[in-house]
Write a structure and sequence with these properties.
binds 2-phosphoglycolic acid, 13 helices, 8 strands, single chain, 368 residues, binds zinc ion
């Protein structure tokens, strides 16, 4: 919920949502003897009463929901992740290293090129492996006289024109780090295809526009056989369910097909996706749904269907590290939280390192 008053912060301010917390929500919660998350979240849902949190704002409900979770951990004098769950694992990071799409001002259509250190022994090792690749990619870009400034999620945003060029550079950076592409480090993409579809239902995944779904599928097949790509997020637009089904049917055994815009962390949409075999993994963003309880319900539903769960930041994010604890406590196999640049991204990685320290010899990496 934004104020949409163009004279104030270009319409982006959130004073209404803050007021909803301080007045409406506060009045309801003040004298409530609640001692569990579900109860608090139920009050929020009832008070809002809409399908999409349009009355209170999902930013208002989520802030209160997560604040309760944090207070509860403090009251119990244990770490947040321990208060959230009973078994733990450290997620494998999907680290964004080249930004394109709406997250960068270059000509790349695919929004995110990520690396995933599948052979990492522990979280510190995962960070080190990604760090090496990032530093080698930086050197490569410099040697080609390309800019090394970063995009919204901390990945580089060089003036690259084709997806293949970006992929070649990443493979080279992995090799220069003495790591094996496809073995130590795999590549993950977020196409964010909602942004690439036109009125006629055609997709522009690279400079040319694909007029048929078969051509798009062939392109993904070509990319995944040529490069060590093990995950593709939002390969089709959010309401193009038929194409998703075809994608999962063709590539679902070989790679992760991840629904972000497709599922929007919503059990109704996820249920349809599970029934129709539209994907095999889900991106989980607490602020897409607006309460912790609903977020946990989505994760539970996904796990029951053997979907991989990837806990995720947003391109516009804060220093808050809640999602790090959430990934550990739900034993999600992966976390997607940008590159090792921009402190709002690095904060989550630092938190995961602290969690690994706290768990000591009990710490274990999630496996995909
Ligand atoms: P967003 O991007 O936070 O801008 O939606 C992140 C993503 O698409 O995964
Ligand atoms: Zn996405």
């Amino acid at each position: 919920m934004r104020d949409k008053d163009l004279k104030k912060f270009l319409g982006k301010s959130v004073n209404k949502a803050v007021e909803n917390i301080n007045k409406k929500i506060c009045t309801q919660l003040k004298n409530l003897l609640a001692n569990n998350q579900e109860q608090i979240d139920k009050v929020l849902l009832e008070l809002d009463g809409s399908e999409n949190k349009t009355n209170l704002g999902a930013n208002a409900t989520l802030a209160v929901s997560l604040a309760y979770a944090k207070c509860s951990a403090i009251e119990n004098q244990i770490s947040l992740f321990k208060n959230l769950g009973k078994s733990y694992s450290l997620p494998i990071p999907l680290m964004n290293i080249i930004n394109g799409g709406v997250h960068a001002d270059n000509d790349l259509n695919i929004q995110e090129f990520m690396i995933r250190p599948d052979s990492a022994k522990n979280f510190m090792d995962a960070i080190e492996k990604c760090f090496l690749v990032i530093q080698n990619l930086k050197k490569l870009l410099k040697s080609k006289k390309m800019l090394t400034n970063v995009g919204d999620e901390g990945g580089f945003a060089p003036s690259i024109n084709t997806n293949e060029e970006a992929l070649e550079l990443i493979v080279q950076a992995i090799e220069k780090s003495d790591l094996k592409p496809g073995n130590d480090i795999v590549i993950c993409l977020d196409v964010a295809a909602n942004e690439l579809i036109n009125d006629k239902g055609e997709y522009s995944i690279q400079s040319k526009t694909f007029t048929s779904v078969v051509d798009v599928l062939n392109y993904y097949q070509k990319l995944t056989s040529k490069y060590p790509i093990k995950s593709i997020e939002d390969p089709f637009a959010e309401d193009d369910w038929e194409s998703w089904k075809k994608m999962t049917n063709i590539l679902g055994k070989k790679i992760q097909i991840v629904g972000d815009d497709l599922f929007v962390t919503n059990t109704k949409r996820l249920k349809k996706g599970i029934l129709e075999k539209s994907a095999n993994s889900i991106l989980v963003k607490p602020n897409q749904i607006g309460t912790l309880t609903e977020t946990l319900e989505v994760i539970e539903m996904a796990k029951k269907a053997n979907f991989n769960t990837i806990i995720s930041h947003r391109s516009g994010d804060t220093e808050d590290t809640f999602i790090a604890d959430l990934a550990v406590a739900t034993m999600s196999s992966q976390i997607k939280t940008g590159s090792l640049a921009r402190s709002e991204r690095v904060a989550k990685y630092n938190r995961l390192l602290r969690v690994e320290e706290e768990l000591g010899n009990q710490a274990k990496m999630a496996r995909i």
